[in-house]
Amino acid sequence: MHSTECLTIKIKLPNAAKQQWLEQTAQTFRKAVQLGLDAAKEPETSSRAKLHQVVYKPARQLGLPSDYTRMAVNAAVSLARSFYGQRKARRKASFPKLNGNQGIGLGINAYTLQRDADRWTLRVSTGRRGQYVWLPLCVPKKYADRLQLAYGDAKLFQRGHDW
């Protein structure tokens, strides 16, 4: 039977260049998700195919890599479906608005976890061939075995100064 487990791992304090890349990517990701929400509001749809068709090209023009764009469309679909589901259940709900806590969606092709002795790093794609951002991780020993088995989509969130 398939099981899903969620791990929350802290990124060690990044240098100024990595911090700037993270903030810029998060801002662009939020813009792409907002494009998806705007596209979902007018025709009142949460169809992944329709939102992908409307959002993909403009999000790529913002400079978002393809895997990040796919995750932005998925985030917009999820938010729209949540809203329309609440409305269908006759619950009072307002259309979702993005705040600074949206995070960055990382598709399975956008990152890898690498272990070197007892040090873990997160290698994140920048969208340019052969260019990556390496982020050292703070991994407690009790989670090291679980992290080796990690597979699937991930999200990067910023809480205060921590990622």
Quickly count the helices: 4
Mean residue pLDDT? 85
Using DSSP, what is the number of strands?
6
How big a fraction of the residues is strand?
15-25%
Structural class: alpha+beta
Largest sheet: 4 strands, antiparallel
Helix content: 40-55%
The strand line-up of the biggest sheet is 1-5-4-3
Number of individual domains: 2
C-alpha-based Rg, rounded: 17 Å
Principal-axis shape equals: globular
N-to-C terminal Cα separation, in Å? 32 Å
Oligomer designation? single chain
Low-confidence stretches: none
Q: In sequence order, what are the helices and strands, one letter per element? A: EHHHEEEEHE
Task: Write out key terms for the chains shown.
163 residues, four-stranded antiparallel sheet, 2 domains, alpha+beta
Would you kindly provide a written description of the structure presented here, covering whatever features stand out?
- The chain is of the alpha+beta class.
- The protein has 2 domains: 20-88; 103-156, no CATH class.
- It has 4 helices and 6 strands.
- The chain has helices at 16-41, 48-61, 66-88, 141-148, and strands at residues 10-11, 104-106, 111-116, 119-125, 132-138, 154-156.
- The strands form 2 sheets. Strands 1-5-4-3 form a 4-stranded antiparallel beta sheet, with no helix packed on it. A two-stranded antiparallel ribbon has the order 2-6.
- A hairpin with a 2-residue loop joins β3 (111-116) and β4.
- α2 (48-61) crosses α3.
- The longest helix has 26 residues, at 16-41.
- It is globular.
